[in-house]
Design brief:
single chain, alpha/beta, Rossmann fold, 5 helices
Amino acid sequence: MPRSKTPVFVLQHTSGEFLGLIEDHLEGRGVRFTYFRPFTADGKLPATVDFCAGLILLGGGPWGTKGGRAVPTLTEELELTRDCLALGKPVVGIGLGAQVLAIAAGGDSERTELVFEMGEARRVKEDALNGYLPARYPLAVYMRDRPVPPDDAEILAVDQAGRPALFQVAGNCLGFTGHPGAKLGMVEDLIMEFEESPEAPWATMEALRKAQPEIEDALVRIMTGLVQITGLMRPGPEPREPG
C-alpha cells in the first residue's frame, strides 16, 4: 500500500514510551509518522502543525501536568494541540497526552501520584468508535495526574473506578488514559529510565505480560474505529463482528 504523503507528528516524552503495538497498525496502512523527542539533547517540538496530518501525544512516565512534576514542554504542547483543534486536525492523546488534550479542549487535569495499574475499561456508549470499541478491553495505565475532559466531551469508556478511560472531543480527537498498544518492555524501560517509579511494580508487570494477547486483539478493533473517527489513515480490513 502506498505511504501517505503527510506525516502524523508523534510527540514523545520519554525514551521508554513510544507507539508500541500501534506502530504496526500505522505502517500496515501506509501511514507516515515522525517522532519528536524534545527531551533529548538535540530534540525539539515541531514549530507548527501546518504540515502534519494530526498529532499523537504519548504518555510521560512520571511527568504530569498539574505542578507536582509538570512536563517541561507543557505550554508549547498545549499551543500545538489548540492549533490542531482550531484547524480541525485530529489529536490522539495517551496518558499524559490525554491530559494535554483535555486541557487544550477546555477541560483540566487533576493532581494524582504516579501510578502503574493494570485493569479493565468498560464501554459506556454502544456506538463508541463507530461501534468498534470492545465492550471491555485491558487498561494499562502508567501515569501521573489524570485528565478531566471538558463538559462537551463524550465519555466512551470508563475504568473500574468509573473514571473516564477514553473520551472524544471536537469530533475527531480521542484521549486514552491507558496505552492501547502497551508493551511490557515499555514499562521495564520507564523503570530504568527514571529514578522515580511506582512501588512494587512486579505484580502489575506480570499482569501486563499475561494480558498482551488480549491487548493485541482489542487493538485491532480499537484502531479500526480510531481510523474512521480521526481520518488519520486509510482503513484496513475490518473485524467481522464490531462491538
